[in-house]
Design a protein that fits this description.
196 residues; mainly beta; Ribosomal Protein L25, Chain P; RNA Polymerase Alpha Subunit, Chain A, domain 2; 6-stranded mixed β-barrel; 4-stranded mixed beta sheet; 4 helices; 13 strands; 14% helix; Ribosomal_L25_dom
Length: 196
């Protein structure tokens, strides 16, 4: 998995005024929780670093004024349009301690039910919550859907996971379904043909 490193500074003060000033300077307010520390640490990171972390499920190494803090991304809060990041929450990890995080599902292949049986692929779940040790966080979970026929479904329990990783979602939850598409009635087809 790609190593992500960020530079951060301690953030002085809180509130909307401080946050607006940071954003004008190209920075983003953030906070680090956990790590056995009694209080959260308010920090500021470069706003441009959002690109590096928004789809990253693994460890993030934050250089906080010379002190390395190893974290995972917990949340990015956006404006009401969902296009401008406003605040980031990190959770500091303790190696050897099981953590909970979210991992993206990558689907590979085209279902035979779509290619040959006029089926339609419906995706219901694009990421899952997992429990694992920090060093075992997978970058993504790869699921091959090429053998699915029309009418087939793939559930959480069908997702292959590396050793030491446990999915926390309900095993019976549908991840993808290849729906059977109803064919148009014959008389509608003949009307179309007649109009050509």
């Amino acid at each position: 998995m790609e190593t992500v490193k960020l530079q951060a500074t301690l953030r002085k003060g809180t509130g909307k005024g401080v946050a607006r000033k940071l954003r004008r300077e190209g920075l983003l307010p953030a906070v680090i929780y956990g790590g056995g520390r009694p209080e959260a640490t308010p920090i500021a990171i470069k706003a441009s670093d959002i690109k590096k972390i928004k789809h990253h499920s693994g460890l993030i190494y934050i250089d906080l004024e010379g002190e390395e803090r190893v974290c995972i991304l917990k949340d990015i809060q956006y404006n009401y349009l969902g296009d401008v990041p406003l605040h980031v929450d990190f959770h500091e990890v303790t190696f050897g301690e099981v953590i909970t995080t979210t991992v993206e599902i990558e689907f590979v292949g085209t279902p035979v039910g779509v290619k040959e049986e006029n089926g339609v692929l419906e995706i219901f779940l694009r990421e899952v919550e997992i429990e694992t040790l920090p060093k075992s966080i997978p970058e993504k979970l790869v699921v091959d859907i090429s053998n699915l026929h029309a009418g087939d479904a793939l559930h959480v329990s069908d997702i292959p996971v590396p050793e030491g990783v446990r999915i926390l979602e309900d095993p019976e939850t549908a991840v993808v379904v290849v729906s059977e598409q109803e064919e148009a009635p014959a008389e509608e087809e003949s009307e179309e043909e007649a109009s050509e």
